[in-house]
Amino acid sequence: MVTSALPQPPRHSLEVPYPPRSNKHLDAAAARHIDWLTGHGMLGGQDAVDLYEAWGVEDLTARLFPETDEDGLTLAFDLFGFYFLFDDQFDGEVGIRPRLAAEVCQPLIEITHGDYTGAGRSPVTASFADLWQRLTRGMSPRWSARAAANWEWYLASHANEAAGRSLAAEQRAAGKRVVFPDRSSFMIVRHGASGAETVMDAIERINRIEVPPAAFHSPQLRLLRQLAGDIPGICNDVCSYAKELPRGDVYNMVAVVQHQQQCTLEEAYKIVLAECQWMIDQCWRLSRQVPALCRRLGLNEEETDAVVRYADGMGDWIRGYLDWEPSTPRYQLDGMLPVDRPNYLEDLLGA
C-alpha cells in the first residue's frame, strides 16, 4: 500500500485538564545534552544533530519535568534522548529478528542488575551504563530494584515486538491472513515496549522524591500509573501509523482496532482517540483523589508531598507529551535517523 494515499491522522483535539508547564533551565541543559549524545557516539555528524534537534526532545522533556533543577533536567534530557535514539533502531532489521533484538538488549538488562561487563561494547551500552549510574545515584535500594525490573520489562519487550512482526511477515509471504494480537496481549507488549513504567520511575528520580510503598501500591496510584503510561503510546499510534504500516507492524493500536472491528482507517483513528480521551478523564479523576488517599493512609507531610508531586508529575507527562507530539517531525517519514552514514546501525549497536 502506498503510504501517501493513506488518510492523514487527525490532529487530536483531546481535552487535557492538566496545565501546561515548562522548565526554566531548558537552554542551559540542552547544550550539555547534545554534548553528551555526541560524546557517547549516539549522534554522528552534523546532519544527525540537526535532525535530532528538529525533533524538539529538549522542549518535550522541559515540559515533562518543569520543577527540577538544571542537573535533573540534563539527566532527563539524556534519558529521553536515549529512549528515542535506541527505540528507532528497531524500526529496521533488528525489529523483525527476535533473537537479534534480545541479544542487543541483553547487555543493557545485565547493567541494571549490576553487571557492567558489556558496558564498553557499543555507544548504546556505554551511554546506558552512564545513565543507569546517574539514575540510581542517591535512590533507595527499593526504588533501584523496582527500576531494574521495569527496565528489564521495557528491554525484553523489543524481542516480543520483533516476534510479532516476524510472524506477520511470514504470514504475508505465505499468502496467509495476518493474525493480529488480541487486545490484552497487545496492551502488555505496548505498555512494556513504550517504557511506560521506566518513565513513571523517572518522575520520582528526576524530581528527587520516593513514594511510600502503601501509597505506591494503592489502587488509585496503580491505575493512575497504568493509564498515564499508556496514553502517550496509544495516542502515538495514531501519529506513527503511516510510518509503521510499510513495515507491517502489528503492534499499533490503530491497526489492531481496524483489524478487530473491520472498520475504515478514519473510524479506527476516531475510536483510538476517543479511548485516549476516556483515559485522560480517568487520570484526572484519580488525581483528584490523591489528597484524600494520603489522609486515609495516615501519611505525614513529607510523604504526602511526595505522593502529590508524583501525581502532578504524571499530569505533566500526559500534558507535555500530547502538546509536543503533533508538532514534532519525529513521526513523519522524512524525520527519521540515521541520516549521515550507511553503517550507523552497526556502529551504534556494536553489531
Report on this model:
67% of the residues lie in helices and 0% in strands. It is an all-alpha fold. Helix 11 (219-239) runs antiparallel to helix 14 (265-288), helix 14 (265-288) packs antiparallel against helix 16 (301-324) and helix 15 runs antiparallel to helix 16. The protein is globular and about 65 Å long. 44% of the residues are buried. Residues 338-345 have low confidence and may be disordered.
Brief rundown of the structure:
The chain has 351 residues and is mostly helical.
The tally of strands reads 0
Helix content: 55-70%
What is the general shape? globular
N-to-C CA distance: 32 Å
- Total number of helical segments? 17
Q: Spans with pLDDT under 50 lasting ≥5 residues?
A: 338-345
* Overall pLDDT metric: 90
Top-tier CATH class? Mainly Alpha
- Give the radius of gyration: 20 Å
When the domains are counted, the total is: 1
The CATH topology, please?
Farnesyl Diphosphate Synthase
User: What is the name of the CATH superfamily?
Assistant: Farnesyl Diphosphate Synthase
**Helix- and strand-based class?**
mainly alpha
What percent of residues are in strands?
A: under 5%
What key phrases describe this protein's structure?
351 residues, mainly alpha, Farnesyl Diphosphate Synthase, 67% helix, 0% strand
How are the elements arranged and paired?
Blueprint: H1 26-39, H2 46-55, H3 57-64, H4 70-88, H5 98-112, H6 123-136, H7 141-173, H8 183-193, H9 196-206, H10 213-216, H11 219-239, H12 241-244, H13 253-261, H14 265-288, H15 290-297, H16 301-324, H17 344-349
